[in-house]
């Protein structure tokens, strides 16, 4: 009976996934072929689908904008903190070359001085180079001090001086004439004004129990 039937053609419901069928009059499929994207195919987009896509795009763009905004804010705040650290110090601290220094005006032993620096979240000063050394010597004069502990000693091994702040070896030095002499077990380093060298400050090893001014650095 299939040969006597009238062929009906049904429009594909979905041109990308649906099937096109041919049926006889009894509704029996006599031909079936896959729909394709030929110019004859018709793609119908429902309005509500379009709106969902638009909403999704808007939401994604908003989320991306928010993320970028947060990233920029965090970056700016970090940068501001770094700039603030370079250009300012806490009250009573002195700024020099990106570091902050605290002058301890009471006379204390080397270890008591270091303990106080640690309570101030710092260490006794580490003199890295000739520039920092010269700046400290000038400052010491301005502060009216003639003896000031700095952050190095040879308590571990005689003659091997280390910085207390990071445990590194002392490489740059500015010893006064005939120093260090380890006289009576002198193990801690100070900046001093030696009258024999016309009041020009240099380094001297001294007994760690001696009580001097001190300088913290952070
Ligand atoms: Ca330093
Ligand atoms: Ca010594
Ligand atoms: Ca000495």
From TrEMBL:
Residues 96-217 form the C-type lectin domain. Pfam families: Lectin_C (PF00059). Gene3D superfamilies: Mannose-Binding Protein A, subunit A. InterPro entries: C-type_lectin-like (IPR001304), C-type_lectin-like/link_sf (IPR016186), C-type_lectin/snaclec_domain (IPR050111), CTDL_fold (IPR016187). SMART domains: CLECT (SM00034). Keywords: Membrane, Transmembrane, Transmembrane helix. It comes from the Eukaryota. The chain crosses the membrane at residues 50-75. The keyword Amino-acid biosynthesis does not apply. The keyword Plastid does not apply. This is C-type lectin domain-containing protein. It comes from Mytilus coruscus (Sea mussel). The lineage of its organism: Eukaryota, Metazoa, Spiralia, Lophotrochozoa, Mollusca.
């Amino acid at each position: 009976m299939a040969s006597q039937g009238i062929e009906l053609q049904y429009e594909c419901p979905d041109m990308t996934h649906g099937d096109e069928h041919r049926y006889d009059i009894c509704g029996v499929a006599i031909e079936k072929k896959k729909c394709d994207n030929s110019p004859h195919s018709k793609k119908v987009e429902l309005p509500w689908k379009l709106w969902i896509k638009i909403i999704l795009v808007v939401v994604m763009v908003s989320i991306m904008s928010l993320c970028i905004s947060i990233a920029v804010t965090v970056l700016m705040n970090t940068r501001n903190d770094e700039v603030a650290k370079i250009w300012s110090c806490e009250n009573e601290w002195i700024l020099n070359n990106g570091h902050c220094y605290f002058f301890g005006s009471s006379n204390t032993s080397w270890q008591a001085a270091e303990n106080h620096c640690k309570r101030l979240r710092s260490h006794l000063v580490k003199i890295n180079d000739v520039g920092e050394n010269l700046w400290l010597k000038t400052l010491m004069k301005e502060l009216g001090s003639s003896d000031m502990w700095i952050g190095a000693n040879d308590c571990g091994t005689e003659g091997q001086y280390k910085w207390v702040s990071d445990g590194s070896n002392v490489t740059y030095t500015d010893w006064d004439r005939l120093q260090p002499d380890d006289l009576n077990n002198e193990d801690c380093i100070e900046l001093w004004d030696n009258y024999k060298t016309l009041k020009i400050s240099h380094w001297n090893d001294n007994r760690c129990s001696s009580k001097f001014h001190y300088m913290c650095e952070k």
